[in-house]
Design goal:
This protein has helices at residues 16-29, 40-49, 66-75, 93-101, 115-138, 151-164, 175-184, 201-210, 228-236, 250-303, 308-339, 349-359, 361-367, 383-399, 456-466, and strands at 8-12, 33-37, 54-58, 84-88, 106-109, 142-147, 167-172, 189-193, 219-223, 241-244, 345-348, 370-373, 378-381, 406-414, 417-424, 470-475, 481-488. It is of the alpha/beta class and 490 residues long. α10 runs antiparallel to α11.
């Protein structure tokens, strides 16, 4: 039987009412052992012999305040071995900064404490503290890469970072030299200036992602002038924090770093879980193909010996087997494309679309589809995956059409992006489902007379993301569907 985790929590608080409030909230979060001290002095002796999982520390204590308590503990070389959350009746940014410099994970005002706020603060404190400990165990120092062309700003980052944790800092003034460094060295954190010379921060991140570099660390982007559109572009590239330099302070940088680390590790954990699921699904799908093949072979042999009615039953079996085999092949393709990075070469999108249309020749003839393709640009990509992407999208436009499909494919280059647009005159997509349909096993149409497995658009999303791009469906008032695919142009 798995042993239950019952955290041991130390509360240093001189108000009985506040202590009881914290105890009630903690009791709702998890089963825990709580030790209460009204005076900081009385809490020091237990710290010499006991280990705690969390400390809640009041700032305004009698005789020795919270800051003096932390300083006293540090002077005695006591390792608290757990995160500390400081609590105060009145907020003071200077005190907050002092607490953060001493390694306190969070500083919150008592009048803002609710179940949700304290629960969130505890969760973040525990997670960031343990991640920091993991990093310090795995490496002697926290490795930071700063890509910044201002010496003054770099100096401020360096001084501030060294107050937060023990770290080793590499400084590059150009994106290109930083990329070369990323080829040979692993970092725990990247601080990137947007307004770089030669190659700006956005192009730098695109280049890093296309080369599959810096996969093991979060990136924080700073800029002198905030721009919401650029911020969204960065978020699409999994940059977790985008901050204006005019808003930078010790506390804001500290919070941004912990927020970025927290978001990054959550994403990493989610990807690891997805990888486990994909391995499981791959094994199941692969193992099911073999018995399906035998069923198809045996039913074909048996069908030669029976009359018309019995033959029709066997034909139904064969059709079901073909459907399941096709389904498993698509599932395996979806899993394979999502499991590893794609090797990219120079690609002519005109030839990609041409090949996709060639693969759909029978469907195009059967529905008498008219497909108009404008001149398309070249890009870096994986040929087979991109053919599959356009084949799925053009195939959907044909399949979900009423009569005589009309499909238009065009592209434009804007803000260092290639935007490919596909429009059709089909049945369209419910505006409320434009994001939902990109999930696996979600059907565009609920009509049983339109075949499909709900994997086509999910596969398109995976292929697009493997090219550091985005894909979206835009509802059309005049009917039909418009799909925008955005690829980085570098």
């Amino acid at each position: 039987m798995e042993e239950k985790y019952n955290p041991h929590i130390l509360i240093i608080e001189d108000s009985k009412d506040d202590f009881e409030l914290y105890s009630r909230i903690l009791g709702k979060i998890f089963t825990c052992e709580i030790e209460w001290h009204m005076f900081a002095e009385s809490a020091i002796e237990p710290l010499k012999i006991k280990k705690y999982d969390l400390i809640l520390l009041d700032y305004r204590l009698t005789s020795m305040n919270g800051l003096d308590f932390i300083l006293k503990v540090n002077s005695m070389s006591l390792d608290l071995g757990c995160p500390v959350i400081a609590l105060t009746g009145q907020g003071d940014e200077n005190i907050a900064v002092k607490f953060m410099k001493l390694g306190v994970c969070d500083y919150i005002q008592k009048n803002q404490i609710t179940f949700e706020s304290l629960s969130s603060s505890i969760h973040n404190a525990l997670e960031s503290f343990h991640k920091k400990r993991e990093v310090s165990k795995s490496r002697e120092k926290f490795q930071v890469l700063i890509i910044e062309n201002s010496k003054e700003d770099f100096q401020w980052y360096q001084d501030t970072l060294k107050q937060i944790f023990e770290c080793e800092i590499d400084w590059h003034t150009s994106a290109q030299s930083a990329i070369e460094s990323l080829r040979v060295k692993k970092y725990d954190l990247i601080l990137l200036e947007y307004q770089l010379q030669g190659m700006n921060g956005l192009d730098c991140v695109r280049k890093i992602r296309s080369m599959n570099l810096a996969a093991d660390c979060p990136i924080i982007v700073s800029t002198r002038h905030g721009n919401e559109d650029i911020a969204v572009e960065f978020m699409h590239l999994e940059v977790f924090e985008y901050i204006q330099k005019s808003h930078l302070s010790f506390e804001s940088l500290l919070r941004s770093i912990y927020a970025a680390l927290d978001a990054f590790y959550k994403k990493k954990l989610e990807k690891e879980k997805q990888a486990d699921l994909s391995r499981f699904a791959h094994t199941i799908a692969h193992d099911l193909k073999s018995p399906l093949g035998r069923i198809a072979a045996y039913s074909k042999l048996i069908s030669k010996k029976y009359n018309t009615m019995e033959f029709s039953y066997l034909q139904d079996i064969q059709e079901d087997v073909e459907y399941m085999t096709h389904f498993l092949n698509n599932l395996l393709l979806y899993i394979e494309l999502g499991r590893s990075a794609l090797e990219k070469t120079d690609i002519d999108l005109n030839k990609i679309v041409e090949q996709s249309m060639h693969n759909l020749e029978l469907e195009i003839q059967e529905k008498n589809a008219n497909i108009h393709v404008s001149s398309l640009p070249k890009m870096k990509g994986h040929r087979v995956a991109l053919v599959q992407l356009f084949q799925n999208l053009i195939g959907n436009s044909i399949k979900f059409s009423r009569v005589n499909p009309v499909i238009e494919i065009s592209a434009q280059i804007k803000n260092y992006n290639i935007i490919v647009t596909i429009t059709d005159n089909g049945i369209g997509v419910d505006p409320q489902l434009t994001e939902e349909v990109f999930k696996p096993f979600i059907r565009v149409s609920s009509k049983n007379d339109i075949p499909g497995m709900g994997l086509g658009l999910a596969l398109c999303k995976t292929i697009t993301e493997q090219h550091q791009g985005t894909i979206e469906i835009i509802p059309r008032l005049e009917g039909g569907t418009k799909i925008n695919i955005v690829f980085p142009d570098f």
